[in-house]
């Protein structure tokens, strides 16, 4: 499953995704991961959530992020939810191309993804994830 949280910059997307992740970890039957461009939300994230700042791994392209997520899932098959905050700030990632890749991973490995997008309106190809 893919869930999109979208809105213009400054509309509280990060607060909402953190709240969702913190609520989910209490009931999750597996591990929860939170990806963000920087590791600056570690004090806001529940201690049982694996917080990963992608800048520490020098992820700047879509293929690198996809490989990183696949590697995380391969290394820990108990991951049930991955939250991605600031997808466009991670690097040169086009959400219209990348979100369907996450959808394929979700179906193949039974992992739920929640992603924030800084845009006032979701592009037509992504509306099916709403």
Provide a compact summary of the structure:
The protein is of the alpha/beta class and 130 residues long.
Structure description:
This protein has one domain. It has four helices and five strands. The termini are close together. The mean pLDDT is about 95. With about 130 residues, it is of the alpha/beta class. It is about 35% helix and about 25% strand.
Write the layout of secondary structure elements.
Blueprint: E1 2-7, H1 13-27, E2 31-36, E3 49-53, H2 62-75, E4 79-84, H3 87-90, H4 95-109, E5 112-118
Parallel strand pairs: 1-5, 2-3, 2-4, 4-5
The averaged pLDDT comes out at: 93
Task: Measure the end-to-end span.
Answer: 10 Å
Q: Using only CA atoms, what is the Rg? A: 13 Å
Shape: globular
Read across the widest sheet, the strand sequence of neighbours is: 1-5-4-2-3
Give the class from helix and strand content and strand pairing: alpha/beta
User: So how many helices?
Assistant: 4
Query: What letter string, H or E per element, gives the SSE order?
Result: EHEEHEHHE
Number of domains: 1
Task: Provide the helix percentage.
Answer: 25-40%
Largest sheet: 5 strands, parallel
The count of strands amounts to: 5
Q: Low-confidence stretches at least 5 residues in length (pLDDT < 50)?
A: none
Q: How much strand content do the residues show?
A: 15-25%
Keywords:
five-stranded parallel beta sheet, alpha/beta, 130 residues
